[in-house]
């Protein structure tokens, strides 16, 4: 009877996978997909996942009203035009353009794109010809696109008339993309802050993906500092009414195109914000496997809840008479069914699908054709979440350590990496990096006066005496301790006049709001100590 215990043994020994993407594919096909198909998950929520969804590069989705600089933003990142690109103040981009890497430059139309098994767009077929005629893939050889793909979307319109004439469900298409991309960037123009009905609908469709959303306030160089403060405040207020999260959404302020700044007053702010946004985008390849794992867990939780909802409705349906009336009654009391499932199975209310949307979808279905609860399918998914996912998490960490330098390279990401235009070059601890003279020497006479009041012995002050002076900066001990380690170059527990001047220079750097270096840069080493053999 050894076969009787195989199922229990299987639960104790999770699957063994070689790579994260292979593991995700296998888990989805063998454990989650049977549950989805049994309870018609794909008709209610989102189409089945394909191999390409697990293998594709990280994707960035750009969303915004017309003329907020979406296409210019892509052009700025790539530092090169892409096929099908049109930029102008009027609504120019009228298509979804997937900008991807390819050996030759060219365009693939939507209908051809959705039959390509290597591309993750096959399930877009469901949106019909009206959408596919407005969907293209622009391919070009570009170093940025070797690590990520970018999806440009049509500008969101403010008028009701244009919105109706799209011919496809714009919000539903964006929701489909939102499930599969790694980062969603909402672009706002500093002059056009109004959030139209369609934009509001789109942001609501991105619900449950708030962790992927970043906001960019573009064209911020066209307004004065005081106006920029007001515009930023107004944007946060508008977003607060639509994005229902307790945390403040991250907003990057800048001018993302390669033209000169119109009002250069906030140049430093724009540079720092751009650097932060670039770091965020550059980290996407490194976190891609984790994001796919996270999305699969999200999907599994929704599929479980969906199975409970469908099976409860089936259980309540009469077998012969009064089916239509019972169907209406069940759909109207769906909220109560949610509460009951929540209580019976200890499920968080956040895992349930949107009540109104679910009620609308149920109207079109024959509830008698639904399946009753099949615990074996649910147990398999629970087993996957409890054991297999934990094993994949270990594999994710291993893959990260084997490939530590997975960052987006090329294009605009290269421009600020090295040389004098790197972020923070020649500022803070980097001040005087190109100068022949020791930068600390400028203020050394002032530091020397303090040094000689601390009763130096043999040209050096003790740690206790130096501390009395250094604590006057009011910096915490942890920071002063780091400054001491950097300044005490010969590690004798005392400071000579040059080391003391260096310590004061580093205190000044910290007080001006700059970070301290991990190791002392060569240009800050006092001239008398530069010849000391290491």
Automatic annotation (TrEMBL):
Coiled coil: none annotated. One of its GO terms (biological process) is endosomal transport. The keyword Zinc does not apply. Residues 475-510 form the EF-hand domain. It comes from Triplophysa rosa. PANTHER family: EH DOMAIN, EH DOMAIN-CONTAINING PROTEIN 3. It comes from the Eukaryota. PROSITE patterns: EF_HAND_1, EF_HAND_2, EH, G_DYNAMIN_2. This is EH domain-containing protein 3. It is a peripheral membrane protein. InterPro entries: DUF5600, Dynamin_N, EF-hand-dom_pair, EF_Hand_1_Ca_BS, EF_hand_dom, EH_dom, EHD_N, G_DYNAMIN_dom. Residues 54-285 form the Dynamin-type G domain. GO terms for molecular function: ATP binding; calcium ion binding; GTP binding. Keywords: ATP-binding, Calcium, Cell membrane, Endosome, GTP-binding, Membrane, Metal-binding, Nucleotide-binding, Phosphoprotein.
